[in-house]
Design brief:
With 122 residues, the protein is of the alpha/beta class. The chain is 33% helix and 13% strand.
Protein backbone atom coordinates (compact mmCIF):
# COMPACT_ATOMS: atom_id res chain seq x y z
CA UNK A 1 0.00 0.00 0.00
CA UNK A 2 2.71 2.48 0.94
CA UNK A 3 4.73 1.86 -2.24
CA UNK A 4 1.73 2.07 -4.56
CA UNK A 5 0.68 5.47 -3.24
CA UNK A 6 3.93 7.13 -4.33
CA UNK A 7 4.92 5.32 -7.53
CA UNK A 8 5.37 7.94 -10.26
CA UNK A 9 5.23 5.41 -13.10
CA UNK A 10 1.98 3.98 -11.77
CA UNK A 11 0.60 7.50 -11.39
CA UNK A 12 1.42 8.25 -15.02
CA UNK A 13 -0.29 5.05 -16.17
CA UNK A 14 -3.38 5.80 -14.11
CA UNK A 15 -3.55 9.34 -15.46
CA UNK A 16 -3.32 8.04 -19.02
CA UNK A 17 -5.96 5.35 -18.38
CA UNK A 18 -8.34 7.83 -16.80
CA UNK A 19 -7.86 10.37 -19.61
CA UNK A 20 -8.42 7.66 -22.23
CA UNK A 21 -11.60 6.39 -20.57
CA UNK A 22 -10.07 3.04 -19.75
CA UNK A 23 -11.59 0.98 -16.95
CA UNK A 24 -9.60 1.42 -13.73
CA UNK A 25 -10.47 -1.04 -10.96
CA UNK A 26 -8.96 -1.45 -7.51
CA UNK A 27 -9.84 -3.36 -4.35
CA UNK A 28 -9.17 -2.96 -0.64
CA UNK A 29 -5.68 -1.55 0.10
CA UNK A 30 -4.95 -1.57 -3.65
CA UNK A 31 -7.05 1.58 -3.93
CA UNK A 32 -3.96 3.31 -2.46
CA UNK A 33 -2.52 3.10 -5.98
CA UNK A 34 -4.90 5.89 -7.01
CA UNK A 35 -3.01 8.26 -4.70
CA UNK A 36 -0.04 8.11 -7.08
CA UNK A 37 -2.05 9.87 -9.80
CA UNK A 38 -1.59 13.63 -9.68
CA UNK A 39 -2.52 16.48 -11.95
CA UNK A 40 0.13 18.78 -13.48
CA UNK A 41 -0.47 21.29 -10.68
CA UNK A 42 0.03 18.63 -7.98
CA UNK A 43 -3.63 17.94 -7.28
CA UNK A 44 -5.20 14.51 -6.99
CA UNK A 45 -6.44 13.12 -10.32
CA UNK A 46 -9.36 11.36 -8.66
CA UNK A 47 -10.49 14.29 -6.48
CA UNK A 48 -14.24 14.68 -6.67
CA UNK A 49 -14.73 11.08 -7.80
CA UNK A 50 -16.83 8.59 -5.84
CA UNK A 51 -14.97 5.52 -4.61
CA UNK A 52 -14.47 3.16 -1.72
CA UNK A 53 -11.43 1.61 -0.05
CA UNK A 54 -10.42 -0.39 2.99
CA UNK A 55 -12.18 1.57 5.71
CA UNK A 56 -10.41 3.21 8.61
CA UNK A 57 -12.57 1.19 11.01
CA UNK A 58 -11.54 -2.04 9.28
CA UNK A 59 -7.89 -1.01 9.64
CA UNK A 60 -8.45 -0.51 13.36
CA UNK A 61 -10.34 -3.81 13.77
CA UNK A 62 -8.30 -6.23 11.70
CA UNK A 63 -5.58 -4.37 9.87
CA UNK A 64 -2.45 -2.82 11.28
CA UNK A 65 -4.36 -0.42 13.51
CA UNK A 66 -2.26 2.54 14.59
CA UNK A 67 0.81 0.89 13.05
CA UNK A 68 -0.51 1.46 9.53
CA UNK A 69 1.58 3.83 7.39
CA UNK A 70 -1.64 5.82 6.83
CA UNK A 71 -5.38 5.36 7.05
CA UNK A 72 -6.35 5.01 3.40
CA UNK A 73 -9.97 6.16 3.72
CA UNK A 74 -8.89 9.32 5.53
CA UNK A 75 -6.13 10.20 3.07
CA UNK A 76 -8.45 9.72 0.10
CA UNK A 77 -10.96 12.08 1.73
CA UNK A 78 -8.21 14.61 2.50
CA UNK A 79 -7.13 14.51 -1.15
CA UNK A 80 -10.70 15.30 -2.26
CA UNK A 81 -12.25 11.94 -3.14
CA UNK A 82 -15.84 11.23 -2.15
CA UNK A 83 -15.39 8.03 -0.18
CA UNK A 84 -18.39 5.78 0.47
CA UNK A 85 -17.86 2.89 2.85
CA UNK A 86 -20.23 0.21 4.02
CA UNK A 87 -20.31 -1.42 7.41
CA UNK A 88 -16.95 -2.93 8.35
CA UNK A 89 -16.27 -6.19 6.49
CA UNK A 90 -19.38 -5.85 4.31
CA UNK A 91 -19.50 -6.20 0.53
CA UNK A 92 -19.28 -2.68 -0.94
CA UNK A 93 -18.49 -1.62 -4.51
CA UNK A 94 -18.61 1.90 -5.93
CA UNK A 95 -18.75 2.56 -9.66
CA UNK A 96 -18.04 6.09 -10.88
CA UNK A 97 -17.94 5.94 -14.66
CA UNK A 98 -14.99 3.74 -15.56
CA UNK A 99 -13.56 3.89 -12.00
CA UNK A 100 -14.52 0.79 -10.02
CA UNK A 101 -13.46 0.26 -6.42
CA UNK A 102 -14.17 -2.38 -3.80
CA UNK A 103 -13.94 -1.87 -0.05
CA UNK A 104 -12.33 -5.07 1.23
CA UNK A 105 -11.76 -8.78 0.48
CA UNK A 106 -15.47 -9.45 0.98
CA UNK A 107 -16.06 -7.19 -2.03
CA UNK A 108 -13.85 -9.21 -4.39
CA UNK A 109 -16.59 -10.98 -6.33
CA UNK A 110 -18.83 -7.93 -6.71
CA UNK A 111 -15.84 -5.80 -7.78
CA UNK A 112 -14.85 -8.37 -10.40
CA UNK A 113 -18.43 -8.54 -11.66
CA UNK A 114 -18.66 -4.74 -11.94
CA UNK A 115 -15.32 -4.67 -13.76
CA UNK A 116 -16.42 -7.35 -16.23
CA UNK A 117 -19.65 -5.45 -16.85
CA UNK A 118 -17.71 -2.23 -17.53
CA UNK A 119 -15.27 -4.01 -19.83
CA UNK A 120 -18.13 -5.55 -21.83
CA UNK A 121 -19.74 -2.13 -22.25
CA UNK A 122 -23.01 -3.12 -20.58
Amino acid sequence: MADLAHDADLGRLLNEADADGTVVAALCHGVAALLSATTPDGGFTFAGRELTSFADEEERQGGLGDNTPFFLESVLRERGATVETGAPWSDKVVVDGKLITGQNPQSSTATAEATLKALSGR
